[in-house]
Each structure stands twice: as C-alpha cells, then as structure tokens.
Design brief:
Elements: H1 4-18, E1 23-28, E2 47-54, E3 57-63, E4 69-75, E5 80-86, E6 95-101, E7 105-111, E8 117-121, H2 123-127, H3 130-133, H4 146-154, H5 160-164, H6 175-185, H7 198-217, E9 258-262, E10 265-269
Antiparallel strand pairs: 1-6, 2-3, 3-4, 4-8, 5-7, 6-7, 9-10
Length: 275
C-alpha cells in the first residue's frame, strides 16, 4: 500500500501537471471501487486550483463554475495509480475513472485490486468527515514533536511499532517506514511504547521525519505496483536498511536482519542495533 512518501510524490506530480486545467467531462467505467463513486458530474466545468495531501488522501481542490471551491478527495488503496495522458489515448487495463480536460489532456485512475475510494466534499464538510476526523498529526509538521509523541507513548499499552502505524497517533507512517525509522533510532519494534525514555522518543521522532523526507526526495519506494505519475518507479527501496532484508547482513554491524510478525504485518529489524 502506498505510504505517505508515495502519496506526496503523486500529489507533487499531479499538481505540476493538472493545476489550472478545466474539467470538460468525467467518465466512469464502473459504479465504484471500495465504496460507490460520488456524483462526479458536479465537477464538470470546474477548474483545478491545487493538488495537496492530508495523510494518505490526495486532495484535488477545484473551483466550480457556480458555488465556489470543493475538494475531490482520493485514497489510492493498495494499487491505485494516477496517470496524465492525451485525451485521445484509449483506456488502459484496470482503468476505472477518467477526467477529460479542455486542454486535451486526461487524468486517468487505474486500480488493479480496486481498494481505492473517492469523495467530493465542500471544504467545511471535509473537515467534519469521518475520514478527516480520524487523522492524527502530520509527521513532517510542527505538531508532531517529541513532547507530543512521548505523552502518547506513556498512555499506550502497545508496542512502539504498532503505535507508530495508528493514524490517530501520527499519519502516514506505514509498515516500510516504521521499520526503517525504528532502525535509524535504534529502537526495538517490540519495545513497549510507555517504557521508552524521552531521549529515545526524541530520536525516533527525528528518525521518522528524516526517513520520510529522504523517501520523498527519492520518489518513494516502488514495492509491487507503485509508480510515479510519469510512470517512473521510486528509488528509496535501494536504500532500505532492514525492510525486506531478512537474513541479509546489517549494513551497520553485519548481524543478520530478522523478521517477525506484528499485528499481521512483517517487521524487519537488527537484533544488535535495536534495543
């Protein structure tokens, strides 16, 4: 599943390619994916003002011909991809929605496993939606800091890695980047969150921020289906220290990387570097 860096990379790519475009038509090839599609017809005639992100949601801000701004909110699910192509190009495999623009370009959404979903909101209704209200702070924002995360850890009865992956605690830190950040901070993924000292929580917050920033700069991590809007892969996977490296030597101490399962997800760690 795309995590925060992959979604951020997609948002930046889309913003550069479709900002200012005017929606001429919306074509759907099915009734919905994970959930039924919203009424996209309200977007016909709207101009795209900006593409941004909240957690793993892509926010396409549109200005309607009548009625002011609205948000097209999209979650990529596990295999969702956006592509910007010439309008004349035929629909590709697993293509479910297309937004045709007045310029002759077309925004296509493809999703092999069909777990993605979308909604159309006013700005006010988005802030009151269940999708938005379930979200914690952004890890790269000033609201995510050591004091905040330490207080949260002290109230937790779970291990640190599952806590990091809970959206109410901090958004967008999925399985890959949780494992990598814990390695960078030297924290064992099974350590109980409430038993981690403040200085180590502070190191972990910094590791999360640095790991995510490096991944964004590298274009994300192409595991399975992820590609950028231009079809290129992300290159951060080449820099993994632990994720997917079971039985390989640690790049710091040469100990063998281990794998275990936590809350149904594979966790990778170094038994020597992480305590």
């Amino acid at each position: 599943m795309p995590e925060l860096p992959e979604v951020e990379v997609v948002c930046r790519g889309l913003d550069a390619l479709i900002r200012g475009e005017k929606i001429e038509a919306v074509i759907t090839f099915r009734d919905g994916l994970r959930y039924p599609f919203p009424d996209f017809s309200a977007l016909v005639g709207a101009s795209i003002e900006q593409v941004s992100r909240r957690s793993k949601y892509i926010l396409i801000r549109c200005v309607l011909e009548e009625g002011g701004p609205c948000l097209l909110v999209w979650h990529l699910g596990m295999t969702g991809q956006f592509h910007v192509l010439p309008m004349a190009e035929e629909a590709g495999k697993h293509e479910h929605v297309r937004f045709d623009f007045k310029s002759g370009k077309s925004l296509r959404y493809r999703d092999a496993r069909r777990f993605g979903y979308a909604g159309v909101f006013s700005e006010a209704s988005w802030l009151q939606s269940d999708w938005y209200l379930a979200l914690g702070p952004e890890p790269l924002s000033p609201s995510f800091h050591a004091d905040y995360f330490y207080a949260l850890c002290k109230k937790s009865n779970t291990a640190i890695k599952p806590l990091m992956m809970q959206a109410h605690a901090v958004v967008g830190v999925g399985n890959i980047y949780a494992s990598e950040s814990l390695f960078q901070a030297g924290v064992h993924p099974k350590r109980m969150a409430k038993r981690i000292a403040y200085r180590r929580v502070k190191a972990l917050v910094l590791a999360i921020q640095q790991t995510l920033s490096r991944a964004i700069d590298a274009g994300g991590s192409s595991i399975s289906d992820f590609v950028q809007v231009d079809g290129k892969p992300g290159y951060f996977a080449h820099d993994f220290y632990v994720y997917g490296r079971e039985a390989a030597p640690c790049r710091r101490c040469s100990a063998q990387i281990k794998r275990m399962v936590q809350t149904g997800r594979s966790t990778f760690y170094c038994p020597q570097c992480q305590r």
